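Encode chain A's predicted structure.
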Amino acid sequence: MRWTWARFDGLSLDDLYDALALRCRVFILEQGPYLDPDGLDRASWHLLGRDDAGVLQVYLRVVDPGLKYPEPSIGRVITSPEVRGSGAGRTLMAEGMARCRSAWPGRDIRISAQAHLQRFYGEFGFGPVGESYLEDDIPHIEMLSEAAR
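Encoded structure for chain A:
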């Protein structure tokens, strides 16, 4: 996987287009309509993973601390349908966690996870916080990965 880690204004037009197209394909066409551009992209880091042919296969964003949660927040985690089940999602999360730990050493990381993915995120040290809730008609739960203390 070839990685791009950039702030919004550091993304190329092709990176931005490909990220938004993949987000639309998965989050809107597969999961149902909702407003994906939520105003947080401009204040976030974006991690894009492309295959050897240059096709965007995985993506996530990290919202700066204090904007969505007190902690940095990983979200918009996407694996394209073509590579699901290949381990690409685990590779993406491992890379995203490493980037967060580097950018904000000693900080906890928070996510709003689809509830059925708790076990997956648990593999990366995330534990549930509070009760599940509906977000865009999909059950979610906040999860926290505490920094090594």
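Residues 2-106 form a domain with the Aminopeptidase fold (CATH 3.40.630.30).
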